[in-house]
Amino acid sequence: MDSTEVRHLDVHGYRRAYRIAGGGPPLLLIHGIADSSETWKPVMSMLAEHHTVIAPDLLGHGDSDKPRADYGVAAYACGMRDLLGVLGVDEVTVVGHSLGGGIAMQFAYQFPERCERLVLVSSGGVGREVHPLLRLASGPLAAETGLALATSAPVQGLVRLAAPLLRRGLRMGPDFDHVLARYQGLTSMTARQAFLRTLRAGVDMRGQVITMLDRCYLTAGMPTLIIWGANDTVIPATHATVAHHAMPGSRLCVFPRTGHFPHHDQPERFVDTVVEFIKSTHPQKYDQEKWRDFLRTGHTFPPETSSGT
User: Looking at 61, 260, 263, 264, which residue is catalytic?
Assistant: First the structure.
């Protein structure tokens, strides 16, 4: 298991793409919206020196099938469980970026007995704020026909020509090139439909809809690391502090001069931070009685952090 080439298997009749490399304790890498497992290539080989690294293409993304299906975070979390089941992996440290962070949190909530540690990277699901382009894309003007026009070859050509102006106008800093590459990948009808369904499951015109803050107390006892870029223009870095306060015992690491993609902007530091975190913590062992006690007691984080705004 030492190749990072894309592999395929069928789960529930759908073709799922994934990469797997290395050996040792398993590490699941979950990418963000309109992205794929390719996003992890800058860090995957380095992480594979210490771990068996599994990086899937989410359903509707990358080289996986793009059916008319449920693209909510709960469905994605179930998909991760089933993929791990097919691969024979029972317990795993989960790393999630952006939308993948929300899926990672949902995985830890739905399947605590399978989640040893949690690493959230510029994660969704903390507060409402998100880049205006994503709010706009969730609205009625971004129907399939509108998005088809916006991603057509002539318009994409104009966007490339206007990139220097857009870079300044959109104020996306280090994130512009990464976001532009994801936009340029929405050329097929099935990819656009999956993107819209995924986006609208978690974002509307007012911002992010789903919050993980109401259940963050359940991570008490689960080693949790939060990584964020100080210059994130997609999801503001202020969300990192909110998540840190809401998750008992979590570690927070904010990378300076870094945007929404810390694993791209500072890959060596990213790997060192994740590997050191795993080496210095013990995996959570699920305790059903303790889980029941947490549920009965309820959340313990300050009320002002619970609104997600």
Answer: 260
